[in-house]
Each structure stands twice: as structure tokens, then as C-alpha cells.
Amino acid sequence: AQTVTQSQPEMSVQEAETVTLSCTYDTSESDYYLFWYKQPPSRQMILVIRQEAYKQQNATENRFSVNFQKAAKSFSLKISDSQLGDAAMYFCAYRLTGNQFYFGTGTSLTVIP
Amino acid sequence: GAVVSQHPSRVICKSGTSVKIECRSLDFQATTMFWYRQFPKKSLMLMATSNEGSKATYEQGVEKDKFLINHASLTLSTLTVTSAHPEDSSFYICSAPPSSWRGQNTEAFFGQGTRLTVV
Questions:
Q1: Distance, in angstroms, between A105 CA and closest chain B CA?
Q2: B100: pLDDT strictly greater than 70
Q3: Which residues, at least 6 apart from A55, have a Cβ–Cβ distance to it below 8 Å?
Q4: Cα(B89)–Cα(A86) distance, rounded to whole angstroms?
Q5: What is the Cα–Cα distance from A15 to A19, expressed in whole angstroms?
Q6: Contact status of A53 with chain B (Cβ, < 8 Å)
């Protein structure tokens, strides 16, 4: 079965500080893509960062970076210098070759001014 | 990036009526579109996979006669909630992943979502 687990339903971080959101997944496939999506109060899903499973180098996008551990099937998201606009639900997801996406249960991030 | 347009963004309907939600890929072709349902502060629950030119594939527990899906063209999929009940009230989201795999567009693009309220 394809599953994605986000063990932290809620997280909070002080503005300007760093926070890490965890994600583990289970798949028997070797070729896939991993994603973090952000869903702000508007509920529009926004892509935060993407990681190709065949690449060992961790992806980074400005203040967002991932720690991808393929053997452990772990894909955590680090947000540096947190901003108020980072407050949102964050979903971890992966995509197999057949277009199918699998989403985690989400982590609600609160940024404290 | 690619754009997926979902319409309407909000709809209120009476119990027993039907509601149609449209999902359009504006600048790319999508042979597959996904329909999700999301409860407040919960994850996206995949309802069905819409396939252009063939029948939709429904997830277990989703009533295909109640949630009718039609993938009319390579840029349009519709979800019709038939004989709506208050328990159908929810947030519905469509997504369309462009077909390319090793290209840039490997992520899914999401519509804005539709908040359905059945009264």
C-alpha cells in the first residue's frame, strides 16, 4: 500500500526561527517524485518544493529545503527564517510514474509574531 | 506554471438537487484529472480519477452514481453531485498533472477548489 505519514498534526514556530516538518512514506517503487504543498487559508494548493527520488542532492528553494533520506523513506521540510505568511497547512506527497499522487494528513503550521 | 481553473468557487444548493463543478486545464492538456474531497483541517481524500475518453476510476467507498465524472475533453473534467444531501457539503478540489514525467511539469496543478453547501 502507498502511504504518506505526517506525524505532526500541528506545529508552531517563532517568527524568524527555523522549523522542520516531518514526513515518511511507504512505496515499493524506486522511481518517484516527492513534494511539499502549502495550503493557506485561501485553500489554494501551492507547490513549495519538489525532489526527484533518483537525485541524492537535497532540493532547496530559498528559505525552504528538504532532507531526503531515500533508504529511510523520509522527506522532511525545513523552513528557515519563518515568516507570518508561512502559516498554513503543509502536505507531503509523492507521485509515481502513473500520475497518481499520494498525500499525507497534513501539518498545520502556526507562526508566532 | 500551468493553470487549472475550477468553477464555481462556492455554491449553495438545496437538498435533492444536482450541482456541477468544472475543472479546466487552461494551458496544457490533461488526459487525467483527479477529484479530491477535503474536510476542514483534513487531508485531501482522493475520490476518483477522471480519464479522457474512458470511464472514471472511483476510490473505494465513493458512490459513482452519486458523484458523476465526465472527462469531456483533454482540458475539461466535470464532477456532478447528484441528489445532494447536507452530508455532501464539503470542499472539492480538482488537480491535473501534465503528462510529462522527466520534464519540468511533474507536479500536480490544483484548481482553486469549490465549497459546496447543501441546505
A1: 5
A2: no
A3: none
A4: 28
A5: 10
A6: no
| DSSP line for chain A | --EEE---SEEEEETTS-EEE--EEE-S-SS-EEEEEEE-TT---EEEEEEETT--SPPEETTEEEEEETTTTEEEEEE-S--GGG-EEEEEEEE-TTS-EEE---EEEEEE-
Q: Does A96 touch chain B (CB under 8 A)?
A: no
B45: helix, strand or coil: strand
Q: How far apart are the first and last CA of chain A?
A: 41
Flag whether residue A64 sits within 8 Å of chain B, measured between CB atoms: no
DSSP for residue B34:
E
Out of B1, B32, B43, closest to residue A103 by CB = B43
Tell me the three cell numbers of residue A13. 514556530
Inter-chain Cβ pairs, chain A and chain B, closer than 8 A: 50
- Residue in A43, A104, A108 closest to B91 by CB: A43
Task: Give the pLDDT confidence of A38-69 residue by residue, as tens digits.
Answer: 999 989 999 999 998 888 899 999 999 999 99
Instruction: Note whether B41 contacts A91, CB cutoff 8 Å.
Output: no
Give φ, ψ of B101 to 5 degrees.
-115, -55
Q: Could you report the per-residue pLDDT of B12-27, keeping only the tens digit for each?
A: 999 999 999 999 998 8
pLDDT of residue B103 exceeding 60, the answer is no
| Eight-state DSSP code of residue B59 | P
DSSP-based three-state secondary structure for B87: helix
Cβ contact B89:B116 at 8 Å: yes
CB contact under 8 A, A45 and B95: yes
